[in-house]
Task: structure prediction
Amino acid sequence: MPPFFARSARTSAPLAPLAPARALAHPLWLGGLALLVLNDHVLKGSGALPGLVTGKLSDAAGMLVAPALAALVVRARGRHAVALCHLAVLVVFAAIKVSRPAADAVEALAGALGLRWRIWVDPSDLLVAVPALAASLCWLVPAMERPLALRRSARRLGELAGTTVGLLACMGTSRVPPVEPLGPPPVPPPPTQAHAQPGPALDVALLRGGVWQSGGPGTPTAYRFEADRYVYTADLQTPETGRFELVEASSTRLRLRLFERAQGHAPLPPIELALELAPDRRAFAVADNRGVGRVFQREPEPATVATDPSAATPTQP
Result:
């Protein structure tokens, strides 16, 4: 029986106050923190693992790390208070994974704090988040009862270090880095346009009719948009196909919803795709659960040779 339930069954013994900081020394919490840092700052966008895998790893690791940090921040001392911290983390996570308005509200709050977050609405993330939260309840909550065999000063220092690293890792998990300028510096506009206002919202039509590649010509990672359908190829995997629709457009960004997705015969859940376009509209940086900040450039159009009818070879008599 997991420790949480075994401890709850012994109702005759008094329950000691909990110290959430003690969970930060548990191997499960430390493993979740290490996975969160490694996944979000090394694996995401590297191509070592599919984006679907790195997205789910991030959710599972975050649900192991966040509840204990929340209990520590609010100074929860009782089991009911710690359980409520777990419930609050689950409610917020579920809301941003099933509701686009909730995700937008959290993004706006993060932006007010100086953080550029991009949250991807995907209800299937709950399939890994709920078991991770249950593991925290079963093994990290009982760890909050056990004293640490360390001197008080060393324990305080360890708690402070664990809290700081954990909060930074959680804050960095969904950040979107700024898009670097692509290609040579843009040519300054003519004097008549020097004080022009920002241009109108982008049209999704500029994506169609071409192949957008990541890494240069010949690479197998690419997007192709035609009508309301798309094809995404990554490495040597089976191409992903589906439909897309415009969710939001500004003068520099397009946000698309990809749905009816499939890889071979395997269906995939809908996701959203944010594209930051370069000034020349020949490249964009994409942020989705496959990776953050990957740059795709449109393949050069094949050169066409104009033919002059008068230059045709004369007919032999």
The chain has two domains: 13-172, 198-298. Residues 13-172 form one domain.
